[in-house]
Every structure is written in C-alpha cells, then in structure tokens.
TrEMBL record:
The species this protein was found in: Pan troglodytes
One BP annotation, GO: apoptotic process
Superkingdom as given in the UniProt entry: Eukaryota
SUPFAM superfamilies: NAD(P)-binding Rossmann-fold domains, WW domain
Name this protein carries in UniProt: WW domain-containing oxidoreductase
GN (gene name): WWOX
Amino acid sequence: MAALRYAGLDDTDSEDELPPGWEERTTKDGWVYYANHTEEKTQWEHPKTGKRKRVAGDLPYGWEQETDENGQVFFVDHINKRTTYLDPRLAFTVDDNLTKPTTRQRYDGSTTAMEILQGRDFTGKVVVVTGANSGIGFETAKSFALHGAHVILACRNMARASEAVSRILGEWQQGAATTVYCAAAPELEGLGGMYFNNCCRCMPSPEAQSEETARTLWVLSERLIQERLGSQSG
C-alpha cells in the first residue's frame, strides 16, 4: 500500500479507475493504451492493475472511426452528430490473455442458464421447450424469454403451463433494471447509439439497423402526429 501511495496510485476507489493525470486511449486495431500526461509518456499496461486490454466487438450502430491530422484516432457519432476521442467501446474492454489457452471448459455444474445467455439477444427467434412448467425446462424457457425469444411452452398439463407462464411474466419486472443501468451507470456516461438487454450490451437485430426501416418509421411518425394535431384543431 505504501508503494501505491508513493506512486500516487491510491487516490481512486476502483481497481480499474485511472489515477489523476492518466488517460485511456485506443489504437486503430482496438488495443487499449494509457497516456501519462504528468510524465508525458504512454504504456500498454494499466497503471494500477498491470493488465493489457483491448476493446470488445465492433463500434455501435451509427459510429465511425477516423484519424486526425496528428494521427490520433477519433470517433464520429453520426446519430447524435458529434465527434469524440473517447472510444465508445471502452466500457466493454476485455483483458488480453497472454497465457497459453487451456482445454478447461468454459462452463461447469455451477453455471446458470442466465449466465450462459448473458449478452445474447434472441429477438425474433422462436424457441420450443418441452416440460417447461418445472425444473430444467422451466429455467430454459425463462432464460430464453428474458433474452427476447418467443418461447412456446410444450406441457401436458395446461394448468401448470399457465402457472409457469405467469411466473415467467413476473420476471419481467427486472426489465426496468436495464433502463436504470443505462441512465445511471458512470461507465456509460457520454456514450450513445448502443443497444442493451438485461443490463448487457447486445447487437441489435438486422432490421433495427436498417436505414430504410428507420426512414419509413420516421415518415409514419410524422404522418401520425400531423393527423393527431389536425384532429385536435378540428
């Protein structure tokens, strides 16, 4: 602890939070590096954890990467019509694993269905689950439903199937958590143009990324508003 204090690295509460005078940046190919403005130098390792990181996934819909005249990468948010030197993916970095990968399985007996589906969006998918009113079938149906899938519960007892549906629908109260997370999470401040499901960033469906569909919805919205305003004035 004394060594951290001497180095000025004990001023923050979070392990991943940067000390004063440091800035997090990304290269063109997505590697994260750190700029020390006090000593005017850069390094690949996080100044507190010593870890190397890279950004995960593609840029959010509507974003584009450019390079300024000094060779520094910046980002264009076409939806909100603004530019920033902050990579919108920095909230979703992953550690660079420098060790040799092992054959250890990713999941084990303690893994839940919700953990396996974390970050996945099954909107538009149809899932049929047999024996879905209890046990493994119920947990499977619930997990897929909470991740956007249209789930069909194949059960022999209609009463128990209806009860299972009610229990799954009761879980939708969790849906407000995603809205609150996106509105209040400090790591998302200043970011936009991203889609979240169950408090995890997900890729939107191809239809949601269609510019033609966006224009159609805009025209329809304008027409409905004009019709509504016209009926009120009459």
